[in-house]
Design goal:
Layout: E1 12-16, H1 18-21, H2 32-37, H3 39-45, E2 49-52, E3 56-57, E4 69-73, H4 80-92, E5 96-101, H5 111-114, E6 123-124, E7 139-141, E8 147-149, H6 164-179, E9 184-187, H7 224-236, E10 243-246, H8 253-257, E11 267-268, H9 271-275, H10 280-297, E12 302-304, H11 313-317, H12 320-330, E13 336-340, H13 361-366, H14 403-406, H15 413-426, E14 436-437, E15 444-450, E16 453-458, E17 469-473, E18 487-492
Parallel strand pairs: 1-2, 1-13, 2-5, 5-9, 9-10, 10-11, 12-13
Antiparallel strand pairs: 3-4, 6-8, 7-8, 14-15, 15-16, 16-18, 17-18
Bound molecules: 1-deoxynojirimycin (NOJ).
Length: 496
């Protein structure tokens, strides 16, 4: 399946967290066979592409973002042959496949680290004051007294991107997966890799959050853009729409826009949208800022509400009705939308996992855990939800949220996602085209997306009149046809 080089511009991409998505061999860990078996489900959902979080050989200390072999599949996820079979089936169904690439660090189980090739990592006689994103110092001492840098877990040593062998290795890894047919890459910590000359102390600004820093000496350095200028010609040489999307936690849409362009990457995740509080003003502000920057770089932006690192948006936004309204808003914005597996079932964050079962390395270092959004998906409503001893327990209350329970229920969240993606395909202007804001009350967002299609989201506390004949609503309308609080609609309306 090739052609349409610009497919990613308005694509709906579904993130598969392989460990939690579907278990093909019954060992309690999701795998590539599981993904392959669910391609029919994904096709019916209507996604254009899947992005697979890492499935490479790994000790899974950080869920696979600690890679020991970038050119192989961890036995818990399957084999390269399973990958090949999965991608062939996906392409046959018209679903593109994006894989993760993790270039900021390897696992400490990677042969380079195990064999002591220290020049490929960042070793020093003395640590500086940098802290790990997962909490605690970013340096660990080895037997001979030297220290190595790890912006994340000690089992994730940072690579030295000044070393030509590191650069060559990653160009080669890109080609390895491109030759296997992947349609693109999601670049992990894409704002990392290059550190400021001399590794200066951070000083008073010591504790650093992921979002909002272009001033720290280890993120968003100018030199990182050189790497992407080396990578882009590799992607372009395939001449058939291979793309890359950056995970870059930077301080503003303007900084983010620097990663995107014809000589760098195709897209970057718009985390400002994910982090925006639920409400008319905060969403409007971030939409305006994002669209302005997209215009500057001449490429559409991305929209994302949930992923494997943040609490699910059902919980963050305050309930399912709000999450569905926010989702419908996202799906009507120009650009591409990234969905996170399980959001189509309306899964909430699991808040009460027993501490001893939590596996996120950040939990051990800082007490903050991302396990609650990584609980395996409930496929059936009984019999262990389709899992034999899943790696994290599935809440016993999730029966009604299972795929099986929602199948055939026209009011279900699953039916809502399917209908929304289908309509989005039928109205290409929903993902492309202009957005024109319409006058609306304070707690309501309303805009026109194509001649005749109006989007309205009611964030207020009282119902508002529908702008026209409703094509899709994120929840039930009032008896008089008006739009209740926490509800979004797409309506056909006169050209106005
Ligand atoms: C970002 C990934 O999304 C996250 O899950 C991981 O822990 C860090 N990068 C480190 O690779």
């Amino acid at each position: 399946m090739r052609g349409n080089d610009d497919w990613w511009r308005d694509a709906v991409v579904y993130q598969v967290y392989p460990r939690s998505f579907a278990d093909g061999n019954g060992d309690g860990t999701g795998d590539l066979i599981g993904v392959r078996e669910r391609l029919g489900y994904l096709s019916e959902l209507g996604v254009d592409a899947i992005w697979l979080s890492p499935f490479y050989t790994s000790p899974l200390n950080d869920g696979g973002y600690d890679v020991a072999d970038y050119r192989d599949v961890d036995p818990r996820f399957g084999t390269l042959a399973d990958f090949d079979a999965m991608i062939a089936d996906a392409h046959a169904r018209g679903i593109r496949v994006i894989v993760d690439i993790v270039p900021n660090h390897t696992s400490s189980e990677h042969p380079w680290f195990r064999e002591g090739l220290r020049d490929r990592y960042i070793f020093r006689d003395q640590p500086n004051d940098w802290e790990s994103i997962f909490g605690g110092p970013a340096w660990t001492q080895v037997e001979d007294g030297q220290w190595y840098l790890h912006l994340f877990d000690p089992t994730q040593p940072d690579l030295n991107w000044d070393h030509p062998a590191v650069r060559e290795e990653f160009r080669d890894i890109l080609r390895f997966w491109l030759d296997r047919g992947v349609d693109g890459f999601r670049i992990d910590v894409a704002h990392g890799m290059v550190k400021a000359e001399g590794l200066p102390d951070v000083g008073d600004d010591l504790h650093v959050e992921m979002l909002g820093h272009d001033s720290v000496p280890y993120f968003d350095q100018d030199g990182v853009h050189e790497i992407y200028r080396e990578w882009r010609p590799i992607l372009d040489s395939y001449q058939d729409g291979r793309m890359a999307v950056a995970e870059a936690w930077v301080s503003s849409p303007a900084r983010l826009a620097r990663y995107v362009g014809p000589d760098e990457l195709h897209q970057a995740f718009n985390f400002e949208f994910m982090m925006a509080a639920y409400g008319a003003k905060s969403f409007r502000d971030v939409i305006d800022k994002s669209l302005a920057e997209a215009e500057l770089v001449g490429a559409p932006t991305t929209w994302v509400l949930s992923n494997h690192d943040k609490p699910r948006h059902v919980t963050r936004h305050g309930g399912l009705a709000r999450a569905r309204a926010a989702t419908q808003l996202m799906l009507s914005l120009p650009g591409s939308a990234y969905l996170y597996n399980g959001e189509e079932l309306g899964l909430p964050e699991v808040l009460d996992l027993p501490d001893e079962l939590r596996q996120d390395p950040a939990f051990l270092r800082s007490g903050e855990s991302r396990d609650g959004c990584r609980v395996p998906l409930p496929w059936t409503s009984s019999d262990g939800f389709g899992w034999r001893s899943p790696w994290l327990p599935i809440p016993s209350t999730w029966g009604p949220l299972s795929r099986e329970a929602q199948e055939g229920d026209p009011g279900s969240t699953l039916a809502f996602y399917r209908a929304a993606l289908k309509l989005r395909k039928e109205h290409p202007a929903l993902g492309g085209g202009e957005l024109t804001w319409l006058d609306s009350p304070k707690d309501v967002l309303a805009f026109r997306r194509e001649p005749g299609l109006v989007v309205l989201v009611n964030f207020g506390e009282t119902p508002v009149a529908s702008p026209g004949e409703v094509l899709l609503a994120s929840g039930p309308l009032a008896a008089d046809g008006s739009v209740p609080p926490d509800t979004a609609v797409w309506a056909s309306a006169g050209e106005g």
